[in-house]
């Protein structure tokens, strides 16, 4: 059948270009891969989208690939862990096989992601962090999150870059729907598929101990182990340590 298709589910405020170096490198290895642009990313008129809207968008992409007979690996980053988890409902390969259908999700690969407990929103994962450890945010009059202190955003999220380069990337973060962080997870998609986690030990945005706590929670819920890879990276490994991320993704493609 060949390697699975990969869908990158981006972090909050992150446009696909943040993942382009990784996408280009993986594509050169003959693997179909795409970084999605979620509805919650980038301010637009109307009611700000929820995490459920993001999950529905991901579901459409999964279904299109699955209906073409493709196996799918979801690679989630940061906020993307919540809608990525939600989107698997009914679309795992095992579930589709029961219906006589080919293709489907075979693995979720979390990368420094927010994985809330069932019934909890993405915002709950970092709730125990002190305010000074959180990336400074504000919400405009229309319900969109923005970043009022780019220097601090760079220090926390783009930690492994020189200050000027970190601020350059922080400026590329667009507004993000506040409502998406408040939408509870209603489906534990990780129970349906294989699970991997790229734990970034130098992450200040989602510290390593929080990432480990998520891994422990999933293992307890699933009754099986998560395949964990640890790298010394800040929160944006696809930019700061692309070689490590590419190597990880290629190994996942071969495993599936």
TrEMBL record:
<dbReference type="Pfam" id="PF12697">
    <property type="entry name" value="Abhydrolase_6"/>
</dbReference>
<feature type="domain" description="AB hydrolase-1">
    <location>
        <begin position="7"/>
        <end position="247"/>
    </location>
</feature>
<dbReference type="InterPro" id="IPR052897">
    <property type="entry name" value="Sec-Metab_Biosynth_Hydrolase"/>
</dbReference>
<dbReference type="InterPro" id="IPR029058">
    <property type="entry name" value="AB_hydrolase_fold"/>
</dbReference>
<dbReference type="InterPro" id="IPR000073">
    <property type="entry name" value="AB_hydrolase_1"/>
</dbReference>
<protein>
    <submittedName>
        <fullName>Alpha/beta-hydrolase</fullName>
    </submittedName>
</protein>
